[in-house]
């Protein structure tokens, strides 16, 4: 509790859909493959923003702890991922798919 209050911590609820939005955001924007539940802290930040109490400076950094790897819940990853695109197993073929 001391760490929570001393760091100006906050607790706020987020929905499952907000967590999945953060899960997709982390994968698409940061290249992080985390377990969906692990994205809850990022969902909170994206949903509620960063409150800065009056008379205090905004923090220089914010830490969101991600505790689980995406392979802890492969069904969500497979269910949320776009369809697999097949190609020949060559660098040129992959580059053509990715870069057009």
Query: What share of residues is helical?
Result: 40-55%
Q: How many β-strand runs?
A: 0
Strand-pairing-aware structural class: mainly alpha
**SS strand fraction:** under 5%
Summarize the biggest pleated sheet.
none
Regions with little confidence, pLDDT below 50 for 5+ residues: none
Could you characterize what this model shows?
Helix content is 45%, strand content 0%. The protein has helices spanning 2-6, 16-30, 40-48, 74-80, 91-99. It is mainly α and 100 residues long. Helix 2 crosses helix 3.
Short description:
With 100 residues, this protein is mainly alpha-helical. It has 5 helices and no strands.
Map the helices and strands.
Elements (H helix, E strand, L loop, with lengths): L1 H5 L9 H15 L9 H9 L25 H7 L10 H9 L1
Helix pairs in contact: 2-3
Features:
100 residues, mainly alpha, 0% strand, elongated
């Amino acid at each position: 509790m001391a760490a929570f209050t001393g760091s100006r911590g906050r607790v706020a609820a987020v929905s499952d859909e907000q967590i999945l939005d953060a899960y997709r955001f982390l994968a698409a924007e940061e290249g992080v493959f985390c377990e969906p539940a692990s994205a809850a802290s990022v969902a909170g930040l994206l949903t509620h923003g960063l409150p800065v109490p009056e008379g205090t400076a905004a923090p220089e950094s914010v830490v969101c702890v991600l505790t689980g790897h995406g392979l802890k819940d492969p069904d969500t990853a497979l269910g949320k991922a776009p369809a697999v695109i097949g190609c020949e197993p060559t660098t040129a073929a992959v580059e053509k798919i990715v870069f057009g």
